[in-house]
Amino acid sequence: MKRTLIACLMPLIVNCAHASGLSVNERLALLEKKLEENSKELEETKAELNRYKHNNMDRNINKTEHIYAAGTNDIKQGNTINILDDNGSQTIAAVSPGTERQMTLKDISDYVKNDIGFTYSGYLRSGWGASSHGSPREYAVGSLGRFGNEYSSWFDLQFKQRVYDKDGKTAHAVVMLDGNVGQSYGTGWFDKDSENLLQFSDIYLTTKGFLNFAPEADFWVGKHNLPKYEIQMLDWKSHRTDSGAGIGIENWKVGPGKLNVALVREDLDAHPVGYPDTTADGRIQVNTNTIDIRYKELPLWNDATLEIFGRYSMANKSDSYKREEDTGSYYSVKDAWHTGAILRQSLKGGGYEEFTVQAADNSLASGFALISNANPTFGTGNDYYGSHSYGKAIRLISQGEFYPSNDTVLAHALVYSFGNDIYSYDTGPHTDFESTRAVVRPAYIWDKYNQTGVELGWFRQKNENGIGSFDEEGYKATLYHAFKVDTSILQSRPEIRFYMTYIRSEENQISEFTFQDQKKDQLAIGTQAEVWW
Fold first, then answer.
1. Is 125 helix (H, G, I), strand (E, B) or coil?
2. pLDDT over 70 (residue 304)
3. Whole-angstrom Cα distance, residue 501 to residue 456?
4. What is the mean pLDDT of residues 362-373?
5. Whole-number Å distance between alpha carbons of 219 and 484
6. Contact assessment for residue 439 and residue 413, using Cβ atoms and an 8 Å cutoff
7. Which end of the chain is more exposed for a tag (fewer CB within 10 A), N or C?
8. How many whole angstroms separate alpha carbon 529 and alpha carbon 533?
9. In Å, how far from its chain's centre is CA 174?
10. How confident is the model at residue 192, as a pLDDT?
11. pTM for the whole thing?
12. What φ, ψ does residue 277 adopt, rounded to 5°?
């Protein structure tokens, strides 16, 4: 290359030599030296350009978290993939010809999650509070409402991993960990006898596409149960079935609606007659099983659906326990049923209403009479006791929220229940009861991120049995301001609340509850955070 360049420049060199007085050899030596310098500078420039390209590529890869995976199919199809970030659009693959498509970082994140097949979701609430009489105490949360009336930290953590996905069939392993962390002490070691509790509420495998008669349904096996229906403002479930282990089908398309069916096991510790008033333990494990059936999403009119549900819980007793029952030394574990219907109505402009009517007998009816934690459960925790006498109870529930105007929102929970000849965990056997609970929470919407409101709660319950009549009544007023991420009271989280609450127990003959210093009332202030993800 040098010889060719020299040959081309030779006439010019000769002319320059005559003009300057330098010889041809001198001029040629000078030109070769200059050419070597230019060649060296060119190589250095090319090396610098390569380093720049390499560094820029590394930045793109790190910035998009291996973003090439998100566009694999598009690249094969010859599309141009654009990634949008805070600084605008950045092209990461340009293969022509093709149709241009834009992907956000969220799209890529969702793709990666789907490709990995792992999801992590959960819930938590926690906060700080102090009262006018020492440590603040909760009172009748299930009747007066939750705002300014919760002093524990609860959490749920769910881990879900896809383990198979082929030929229209999928399988996921699911583990749910939940528990309670006390807000009183600095240490939080988990212990069943303390305020710090931990459990694995779900451990199961769920599949789709393996049932030929219901390919769209979710079929699961393990420790799991059908969804629990929560009265959110009162923190208890209108319908639930706890599970030690089970098998179930969900979202099975049958007719105009969907069918959910589950068979679950929930053994209970049965106790001798006299428990819990006697110190004798002597508990005996009794195997129990529950069939839970629900027909849901039955269309009615515009934005309205109906669900019908029923469960039947039965004991599978050993011969030795039957003998204990026959002698009258242990309580008889009786079968129980629970049935009802739920009407759900979505409202124009946002919000919803949910109306529930339900009935139960025996131990499931006993849950209706609880002032707090009024869950329809076969036992109380892991325990079964009480002289259940085939009594029955009925409960009517209305809950939801709506927007009276553009800058106001109101949530509510209203419950009326009554029962005859049930066993009450508070007042004993052959109890008749009647209960009314009302909680409303109106709020002013400053903007999407700020609300100021009040939660007003009142309840009254009367229990009557052969011994006498027992009354319980209380009310609560909570003033609060909340930092939010949307206007909905019941359906938007995260949320941080600052509150001041006054609670008073007018009558306490059922629960015999008092605040600190044997007071009938309590004034508390605090803050609470709540989030699900």
1. strand
2. yes
3. 10
4. 97
5. 37
6. yes
7. N
8. 13
9. 14
10. 64
11. 0.80
12. -75, -20
